[in-house]
Amino acid sequence: MSRNITLDNNKVKKIISTVFDKKYKDTVLIDALVNMVSDSSLEMFIHIMFTPDYELLKIGDYVKFKPGKYDFEHDRDTMVDKGIMKDGYMYGEILKDTSYSDDFNPTYYKMLINVFTINDLGNIICIDHETKTLDLIKIDKSEIKYLTWLEKKVDSE
């Protein structure tokens, strides 16, 4: 479950100060950092800080995410049967971050992903979809049943 928690700047400073060496703790550096970065950047920073095994995403990485209640309103049972959804998670591939920069920022708050879904005829298609970076979980391609099946089919031909 994801939560939106509001922290005042003093609490944020206290959390961030734990990552700085003692010589920086009582300087303006922590105040500057808290005021220079956006809320979404600060949220990402704190998430990474408390997730020791967090891996930065790259273009081409495969991810899973739980879609919003009204996203992808197709038959979820069919998507599970076709191997493009499992335990409420859908799969996709990182295309880019949604910033206006030409460079990829793995910590940008939103990513554009190519999501596996189905059309009205029940055929598997891929569509572009924006998702919060913190909602994405990096996975191995082999976790996507459909892609594993597809590779086996290609190898046998």
Describe the model.
The structure is a single chain. This protein has 157 residues and is an alpha+beta fold. 32% of the residues lie in helices and 23% in strands. The chain has helices at 9-17, 22-25, 28-36, 39-49, 76-81, 145-156, and strands at residues 62-65, 85-86, 89-97, 110-118, 124-132, 137-139. A hairpin with a 2-residue loop joins strand 2 and strand 3. The longest helix is centred in the last third of the chain and has 12 residues, at 145-156. 15% of the residues are buried. The model has no long low-confidence stretch (mean pLDDT 86).
Kindly list the characteristics that best describe this protein.
2 domains, 6 strands
Please sum up the structure shown.
The chain is an alpha+beta fold.
> What's the structural domain tally?
2
Radius of gyration: 19 Å
- Which spans have pLDDT < 50 for at least 5 consecutive residues? none
Output the number of helix runs. Answer: 6
First-residue to last-residue Cα separation? 43 Å
Shape assignment: elongated
The topology string of helices and strands comes to HHHHEHEEEEEH
Beta-strand share of residues: 15-25%
Helix-and-strand structural type: alpha+beta
Helix coverage percent? 25-40%
The biggest beta sheet is recorded as: 6 strands, antiparallel
Number of strands: 6
Query: What would the average pLDDT be, to the nearest integer?
Result: 86
Question: Which helices and strands occur, and which strands form pairs?
Answer:
Elements: H1 9-17, H2 22-25, H3 28-36, H4 39-49, E1 62-65, H5 76-81, E2 85-86, E3 89-97, E4 110-118, E5 124-132, E6 137-139, H6 145-156
Antiparallel strand pairs: 1-3, 1-6, 2-3, 3-4, 4-5
